[in-house]
Amino acid sequence: MRYYNKIFFCCAILACTFAGINAQEATYTIIPVEDSVSRKVNTGYREIDKRDMNADISVVDPDEYIDIDYSRGITDGFAGRIGGLLWSNNIWGMENALVMIDGVPRNYSDIRLEEVDQITVLKGVNAVALYGSHASKGVILITTKRGEAAERKIKVWASKGIGTPTAFPKYLNSADYMEFYNEARVNDGLEPTFSNELISLYRNGNSYRYPDIDYYSSEYLKKSVNYNNV
Fold first, then answer.
1. 102, 95 in Cβ contact below 8 A?
2. Which of 33, 147, 193, 211 has the fewest CB atoms lying closer than 10 Å?
3. Which residue has the higher pLDDT, 23 or 207?
4. How many Å apart are CA 35 and CA 26, to the nearest integer?
5. Are the C-beta atoms of 90 and 84 separated by less than 8 Å?
6. What pLDDT, on the 0 to 100 scale, is given for residue 9?
7. Pairing relationship of beta strands 57-60 and 85-87 according to DSSP bridges
8. For the chain, how big is the Rg over CA atoms in Å?
9. What one-character DSSP code corresponds to residue 207?
10. CA-to-CA distance for 154 and 14, rounded, in angstroms?
11. C-alpha distances in angstroms, 125 versus 1, 54, 137, 142, 158?
């Protein structure tokens, strides 16, 4: 089951290179994006030119899209950018791909997208050859950014958005669930689990003792949610 959010952002980005400590001496420069053709790609134990990659290696650079599609999560930029990667850590329909952050197995939640320099996905024999059987379902390599000597930069990104659900999962109420559960067991040649008396109590009895709660109703969920990120 899934539900989707519509998010509308207003953002402001500021990139500065400081020539000195005094704020009055600050100069504002445009930081060019590195040539994507000559970009070095991390493949685990070495780097190769992006032009030399084969079909079983995919790479994305968050800096190329983070300012135009307002992605904030690590996995937000996967869709449509990496062939064979369905979602999160599912490559070619096989779940539980190995996730490595700077060479150490970790979780996506351990890092923010703003810290990521590059994401490389190894599939098939390329993954197994480097990481063994643990990588039989693929490897997602995340390389974080590094500081640059003698150059001070500040980049500020601010966003604000509103998310509204477009669909909610629909569930049976308590009594109907028990009735269909009993019916399924009878069809399998088993005894019913819930008695007719208990089902009747959940349908018409004391709602505090026999509750039937819809956690997706307006009593529990707001119509929208605000997002703020700086």
1. no
2. 147
3. 207
4. 27
5. no
6. 46
7. unpaired
8. 25
9. T
10. 8
11. 33, 11, 10, 19, 41
d(CA 101, CA 74): 11
154: alpha, beta or left, given left = phi > 0 and alpha = psi -120 to 50?
Answer: beta
Angle (CA) 199-205-206 rounded to 5° is 130
Q: How far apart are CA 41 and CA 147, in angstroms?
A: 18
The per-type count for the chain, helices as H runs and strands as E runs, is 3, 13
Q: Which pLDDT value is given to residue 193? A: 95
**Helix, strand and coil percent figures for the chain, each rounded to 5:** 25, 30, 50
User: What pLDDT digit, counting tens, does each position of 21-53 carry?
Assistant: 344 444 444 444 444 445 778 777 777 776 666
Tens digits of per-residue pLDDT, 62-112? 888 777 776 667 777 676 777 777 677 778 878 888 888 988 888 888 888
- Which residue is listed with tokens 């709660």? 213
